[in-house]
Design brief:
The chain is an alpha+beta fold and about 110 residues long. It has one domain. It is built from 4 helices and 3 strands; from the N terminus they run ββααβαα. A 3-stranded mixed sheet has the order 1-2-3.
Length: about 110
């Protein structure tokens, strides 16, 4: 997302309730703060700066406070959050379902 010639890199994560959302947020930020990523984004967009943020959500729908403030800063209204959360949950389910169908544990075993 681009706002005021600043590129915002947002990476969503669905977390369990037992995981500290601050740790997951920091992991997402560190993942995209590498110089190569920043340079590529700036070259592709022609913008002046890059900000990286994690949008961390528990599987029950609670959103991390810093993620909340990023969305508010970008002007994303709460009504849109429901759509974003739904898309993230559905895509996470699809990835999990694909992994499960390809894993050995779900294949039928010969007797």
């Amino acid at each position: 997302m681009v706002k005021d010639r600043v590129v915002y890199v947002l990476d969503t994560a669905i977390c369990t309730n037992g995981l500290d959302l601050a740790i997951r947020y920091d992991q997402k930020v560190a993942k995209y703060q590498q110089a190569t990523v920043r340079d590529q984004v700036l070259a592709l967009t022609g913008c002046t700066a890059v900000e990286t943020h994690g949008i961390c959500i528990t599987y029950r729908g609670a959103i991390y406070e810093r993620s909340y403030h990023v969305l508010r800063k970008l002007g994303i209204v709460k009504r849109s959050w429901n759509f974003i959360l739904l898309k993230v949950l559905v895509d996470t389910w699809r990835i999990w379902n694909q992994w499960r169908s390809n894993s050995y544990s779900t294949r039928t075993r010969r007797r």
